[in-house]
């Protein structure tokens, strides 16, 4: 088997794994969106009722302040709901990190990191992942990385680092995740 064929096969497997993760993410996102919309509607209705009560007691000056308060409460509730859903997403990722699919994903991530960093790599990972990463052919530098899943890889000379932790993936895609939760994709 030629190197080019092997690289194509690895790339196809990586794309398939990413597609699988995207599909799973899509289904989980739909569930989170439904809960999000219900919670948001409830909070907005409660805020509107409070605004109506305030505007009846006070005149025009208070009505303007109440409207601003409703918007702020809606924004705060939305932000709180977003944080709650992102926390739920982190829990889903933690559960995924304990699954069989995750253990099958790790060798592909090691191959991806090795390809991106130019060959032999050193890895900082969770202790639970160290054995699988060694088996995939990477050198484990440290097995005490506090992460939900994934790892940090560095080039053999230590000049380049590739952060493939779940937290970093969430951070780099924060705006997309938030838009997806809000249904504004």
Blueprint (SSEs and pairs):
Layout: H1 3-57, H2 60-97, H3 100-117, E1 121-125, H4 130-135, E2 139-142, E3 151-155, E4 161-163, H5 166-172, H6 174-182
Parallel strand pairs: 1-2
Antiparallel strand pairs: 1-3, 3-4
Description:
With 185 residues, this protein is of the alpha+beta class. It has 2 domains: 3-98; 100-170, ATP synthase, E subunit, C-terminal (hypothetical protein PF0899 fold, 2-Layer Sandwich), CATH 3.30.2320. Helix content is 72%, strand content 9%. The chain has helices at residues 3-57, 60-97, 100-117, 130-135, 166-172, 174-182, and strands at 121-125, 139-142, 151-155, 161-163. The protein has a 4-stranded mixed β-sheet. Helix 1 (3-57) packs across helix 3 (100-117). The protein is elongated, with a radius of gyration of 23 Å.
Features:
hypothetical protein PF0899 fold, single chain, 185 residues, elongated, 72% helix, alpha+beta
How large a portion of the residues is in β-strands, by DSSP E? 5-15%
Largest sheet composition: 4 strands, mixed
Query: What's the helical proportion of residues?
Result: over 70%
Mean pLDDT: 84
Cα shape: elongated
Determine the N-to-C terminus distance. 42 Å
Give the class from helix and strand content and strand pairing: alpha+beta
| Radius of gyration based on Cα positions | 23 Å
Could you give the order of strands across the largest sheet?
A: 2-1-3-4
Number of domains: 2
Unreliable sequence segments? none
Count the E strands: 4
